[in-house]
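Why does this matter for the project? Reviewers at the last site visit asked to see concrete outputs rather than summary tables. In response, this paragraph embeds two records directly. Each consists of the residue sequence and, immediately after it, the corresponding structure tokens. Nothing has been edited or filtered.
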Amino acid sequence: MKRFYLCIDLKTFYASVECVERGLDPFKVDLIVADAKKGNGAICLAISPKMKARGIRNRCRVWEIPKYVHPIVAKPRMKKYIEYSAKIYSVYLKYVAKEDIHPYSIDEMFLDVTNYLKLYKKNPIELAKTIIDDVYKTTGITATAGIGTNLYLTKIALDITAKHSKTNIGYLDEEKYKKELWHHTPITDFWRINVGTENRLHKLHLKDMYDVAHCDPKILYKEFGKNAKFLIDHAWGIEPCTITDIKAYKPKHNSFSNSQILFKDYNFEQTRIVLSEMIDNMVLRLVEKKLYTSYIGIYIGYSKNVIKPLKFSFKLEEATSSYKYILNKVLEEYDYRINEQFLIRRIGITFGNVSEKRYEQINLFTSFEAAKEENKLEETVIKIKNKFGKNSILRATSYLSDATGRERNKLIGGHNAE
């Protein structure tokens, strides 16, 4: 059975929300979403469609905006954007069951509408128009839609075809894709092809998807390894993965990470404080989900790239969720490996091999009663934070002048929440 998917994107979402909240038309007003406190170097999280029409690129820095443009500067409000996203998701649920929806990001969703066309007596384009019209009526946000016979074509229809459509809707099947986009350039317009991939393709004298489709597969596999399979399939407009497959997928190995760019350059001791805070938050996440980790990865980015970033990882003797145990191991490695001469600006931590299974290694230094008490204490802390907020109870470390936890707890995705 031929399948039909929609990929719906909300136009310059954050900027559009800020315009709607102010009663402004995003297509007629210059507005940016940026933290003015960070000065001209601040990144614009979004710019209004009118500014995009002027040729200004999205996610530019404030200083890159031409001097003749004087935009309204809206402070990011992540909670507000999440509220709008949830309201728009409820619009999708009026037409499609949640099992047939795959959220790709806060402002972009895939919908499998195959089984709904007969129900609504509409073709895919008509149904897409009905949904995006409802989104606008409900929230005032303008949406665009890509329609395709597989998930890849749907995404390409959105990213390339819909942009040139007066209806904000693009459609592709395999034949239409080959006819209209095989020779489209730049090739970086295609999903999953970045500048690095483009350079490697150019090295092979491949400039567009037609060239990739007709290249000897042996050459592509030699250059890209197993990833050549995706490249070749996409060059022909093929994508076997479905939303059902995505929802059924279970990774063999789980991990989660946390990273931050520091507010200023930090020295050895200051970074140690922030590292301790980050481990505390990640351990609480383990305890809340009743998970354990046996692998730690650390990333340290030095200021102004004076030397290469420090990356190291190590295995723990046992899978654990103990804050004391993990903190001691991390700081031990940090103290041994860090170059104290240089200032630090970036920190990243990864907990790997995360699972529900805990393998305890019996030794003379293990106190199971102490571990049990520590776990109870962590669970109590989680309950308090969930009820009264992240800053309601903190370790003493977070009250040191160089700590970042209290400030970051007010953020969502690294940006202002309110």
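We now turn to the second protein, recorded in exactly the same manner.
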Amino acid sequence: MDQHLIVFKAVADKRSFSQAAKALHISQPAISLQIQSLEEQLGTRLFDRNNKRVILTQAGKTFYKYATQIMELYDQAQKDISELTGMVKGKIEVGASLTIGEYILPRIAGNFLREHAQVNLSINIKNTEEIVQKILSTGLDIGLVEGHVEHSDLIIEKFMEDELVVIVPYDHPWAKKDYISASSLLSQPFIHREEGSGTRQVMEDTLMEHAINPEDLQVSMELGSTQAVKEAVEAGLGISIISKWAIKKDLKLKTLGMTRVKDCIFNRDFYVVYNKHHFKTQAMETFLNYLQIEDLHQIIEGE
């Protein structure tokens, strides 16, 4: 693949020389030289630089259309050859929301790569909103998210189920109870995930369905990761509601306890999302199919 095309499309998609350099892992001066060389070859300017923003000229828009078609044809050729040879290879940019990225994706990725050693998985861990935005801007190939997502440009498919549970310090009285009442959640300091978190969205929606206003929780702090929430709960700073997948080791090590809310089940689905307009390489299709295998739960459990 001509490096000029790769650099040109990255700059056009990111609308920034610096962001394109970051995405391609090369220096910004190298990006500028590639664009300058391409413009000299074509005999026209492809970008207007204005107020630190990069905008395609009319010639740039025309060239972008052909560059996109060329790159898609190249990807299709690679895909067809991979199918002929039976070898799956290539790079997949995967975004995962925090719970999935920290506690679920590592096992999935490890098993997938043992079967497909020629694939390079690059993993970005962000919250659900950030992952969706990156998918829409084609900054990521595939996203694995916790929250409910809707967008006309996205393909959204369920790939597994999850349950949120109440976590407490190991010596907390609730740790010995199978269930607590929903109203009792309001009696304890509560540790929240940040706005935009899929975990928080599901928890708040479920509470409201059971006539509990999330604003009535005694929120003592908001934290930006599941691990930070667990550390705060273990330190006795409050209780929280997080994925059962996130506390498997903590329960075995007896650093945290858990319970459930009676008649209030915090179930949710995990979704794989990708841009319907983004070409699916053979590596992408193979990974997407892998997420739908029947024994995915057993793989994550390590059984």
